[in-house]
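Feature request, filed as a ticket because there's no other form

It would be nice if the structure record came with a short human-readable summary line next to the tokens. Right now we just get the raw output. Example of a typical job, pasted below so the devs can see what we mean:
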Amino acid sequence: MSSVRNQKKTALQPAVKKSKKKMVIAAAIAAAILLVGASVGITVKVLHDRKHAAERQTVALCNGYEIPYEELRFLTLMYKDSLEGKYGEGIWDDPATAEKHREELQDLVMRNLNKNYLILSACDYLSIPTESREIDNYVKSQIKELRDECGSRKEYKAMLEEYGMTENYLRFSIGVSFLESALYYALLDGGMYEYTQDNFGEFLDYVEFGGDYARTIHVYIANEKGDSTADNLAKAEEISEELQALSTFDERYDLICEYIGSSVNDDLQSISGDGYYFTYGEMDEDYEKATFAMEVGDVSDPVVCSGGNFVIMRMPLEEEYIAKNAQTLLNYYHSAALGKFEDGFRHDCVVKLTEYGQSLDILAIQ
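Raw output as currently delivered:
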């Protein structure tokens, strides 16, 4: 499954139908990836529950908040899985290869351990309450819906275990997701987005002529379970070299479309031909860097992301598409702007490991 879009956006993925349960789970997990933990009213009560003291033991501090072990564990397991998708299955089973990827794993975990606190700090700055009955009720309703979709408490617990989550952690994630929505609308109501419905025409001009938007199509080769990541990368390199060897835009476009419509490509949503329109802050960082480094008509070398390999062609923007999909583009623009606003609190949200946190071996976390 492709995951090039930033987690705050709709991920690029094969166009397959999902059950409601899987959609709810996916939404909760997506929120948890960036919105780790929370210190909303509902969680303060849970933190006093000694039943899961080991899971709640503080591993780090961030802007006055205590980060429990369960948050560190979730991120660690998530990024272990992500790096397996990038480098191949079993890299954590062999001590030699595990040690080789230790630093990258640790960097990813530490870089993302403060994400929820950026949101909480931003809420505090704008005087958005982080404790309310509305938050409590929303979290309870989401948990109930998820339990009902799972069918039984046993299946619900199995689902949490599958994703390396605790129920407490899931509640954290849902609560902070709610708060980020509140933050989004506070910025909108406060006139903090440069473009809104009030100057929609100016936004369309900005997209088409401002230089900050790109359009791409791509071939995506996923690293599925059992695949050789080396073979997949070699295939992506072969496709990239073949496309780059062609001298004209039309030749490259015709050939990449053939690949997109073939069994080689694992991103079925790209078959439409419209491609992906985005500005800075919307996409996977490596995908974005590769795109904005190219001119229209260029084809990238393979871009390796957590789930596989992209061969990207930058396309010209089309006025008709922009006009037809302007509202979606504006929503994505707002979401990217929200992310930039949250990042402004990064200097306040430095993660400092406790003595206990420093004593943990990240490779040993299971």
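Something like this underneath would help us a lot:
Residues 7-51 have pLDDT under 50 and may be disordered.
The radius of gyration is 22 Å.
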